[in-house]
Amino acid sequence: MPTILLVLGWRFFFYANEGNEPIHLHCRKGDMECKYWLDREILLLRRHTAKREVKKIIFEYFDFIETEWDRFHNEGRE
């Protein structure tokens, strides 16, 4: 479960062995947690301000997240 980003108290990470799900990441800050697909989103947050904050961070780091996703899911296959 590697952490790829820590921004404004939010931890962004991937889980291993989640099957063949499309690119997505998990986000956690305190007792709030959510999961975002980068082509569509599943919102599990109850606080709207947190939702906006997470979306802004994902947008800002989108290319980095894609690169880390590819690196994480392709390790050991080469």
Summarize the structure.
The chain is α+β, with helices and mostly antiparallel strands.
Give keywords.
single chain, 78 residues, alpha+beta, 2 helices, globular
Report mean pLDDT, rounded to a whole number: 79
**Count of DSSP strands:** 5
- Principal-axes shape call: globular
Query: What is the straight-line distance between the termini?
Result: 20 Å
Could you tell me the strand content as a percent range?
25-35%
Structural class: alpha+beta
Report the radius of gyration as a whole number of Å: 12 Å
**Which residues sit in consecutive blocks of at least 5 with pLDDT less than 50?**
none
Q: Strands of the largest sheet, in order across it?
A: 1-2-3-4-5
Q: Could you state the order of secondary-structure elements as H and E?
A: EEEEEHH
- Total helices: the number is 2
Notes on the structure:
With 78 residues, the protein is an alpha+beta fold. The protein has a domain at 1-46. The chain contains two helices and five strands, in the order βββββαα. Strands 1-2-3-4-5 form a five-stranded antiparallel sheet, covered by helices on one side. The protein is globular, with a radius of gyration of 12 Å. The chain starts with a strand and ends with a helix. The mean pLDDT is 79.
